[in-house]
Amino acid sequence: MILVSPQLGENVGTAARAMLNFGLTDLRLVRPRDGWPNAYAVKASSGAMEQLGRVRLFDRTEDAIADLERVYATTARHRDIIKPTVTPQTAMAQARGLEQEGARVGILFGGERSGLNNDDVTLAHAILTVPVNPAFASINLAQAVLLMGYEYFRQTTNAEPHVAAVLEKDLAPAGELVGFFEQLEAELDTHNFLYPPEKRPAMVRNIRNLFQRAELTLQEVRTLRGIVTALVRPPRERVPYKQRASRGGKSGVAPGDAESDT
Amino acid sequence: MILVSPQLGENVGTAARAMLNFGLTDLRLVRPRDGWPNAYAVKASSGAMEQLGRVRLFDRTEDAIADLERVYATTARHRDIIKPTVTPQTAMAQARGLEQEGARVGILFGGERSGLNNDDVTLAHAILTVPVNPAFASINLAQAVLLMGYEYFRQTTNAEPHVAAVLEKDLAPAGELVGFFEQLEAELDTHNFLYPPEKRPAMVRNIRNLFQRAELTLQEVRTLRGIVTALVRPPRERVPYKQRASRGGKSGVAPGDAESDT
Questions:
Q1: ipTM confidence score
Q2: Taking CB atoms and an 8 Å limit, are A154 and B188 in contact across chains?
């Protein structure tokens, strides 16, 4: 469970308590507004904080999810982001299946006031929305965490084997994907594609979302990195092999370069 | 939902809020300790109390459940009472079936401190227990109500509400996608990425599959074409705009190029 920019310490505490109710112990915080450690959190957790073990603190959502193969973003409002939207039931069935394959799964929760921003949602593979009464839809942070924990525990303890669609794949950890995004965006900046500046954030989000949706494997992310590296090199006709090799790009030099250029 | 001897008004309010989140409106109170109506309850309900309509007040649990055909008693502790014990999932499936037959179903919740007494549990047809981490089992009143509401709503709405995010999309015609593939592969040949030749067909398939999986929109295919065109251009510092434009790539020149280079 990853809480992004939570505000009140006591809400972090009640979220921790809700996690532990269902046996979940990996809590990560991104930029908690009221600092960390937080005495209000400890108090509100009714002892959960002590049992939870180490809470990890991050400056960036990207770093908080770096080791996770699947990430869900909880959001209530409709977003203009093209990404699969699933219920807690579906998400936790997928999570359980993925974990049986050895993958790690995380859920992003936004802060109390405004939830996750679009950049954080973009980092996720899917949007997770609790089906609620549309006329009275607001649930608080601890309640959202509680419902995810409940679904997870319910499905785990009910022992109905579930097979998700994507299981055989060796999904890329989010950190690898972010590495690819940052490489691509740096090259696109150099090549003046992400222009004008005021449109850059939306363009970046659109591009990230498009790749997120593909549920890439680690190998595919490496292929994409190799593609970007290859495309920004001058074509082979112009640069002799030895000269090119000495420039030392760390990846993406195709093994055939020697034969074709010399 | 029948709250028996609830203590704090605000807990009644948050329970009401949790009910309304899942469209439940029939709240009954048996001997609320802090009286009724209760300003703390109204405040804590975030507007739910007004929308809920009339809350009925009773002196005895027997009277509160008099019109119900099926009653569940929520309890966490083990009881020496011989009665079927069900999960929320099972209970709400039963409730749904019963309601379709015209029956009315209620759930008893005990007060914050000690829960339902054995007499109240005895009045119920079955015991309802939330499966939780036995090492950290306590959940509060509003959370218990929330979980029942969630289960009820989940099963009633048969919800997989909107995979629609993906369906509403303006999917790219296959021809557009192939156009992108051919552009990309031509550039990758030029940059010697698809090498050696005997591996080329498999590499091309893998790359095409990766993009196919994303279910790209027409706009996204155009963005990808633009990205490839941008990446293979020399970086902006080296080539003045007029010279670059005269080379005449047929697509994918980002709209901002003119402003930025001239």
A1: 0.73
A2: no
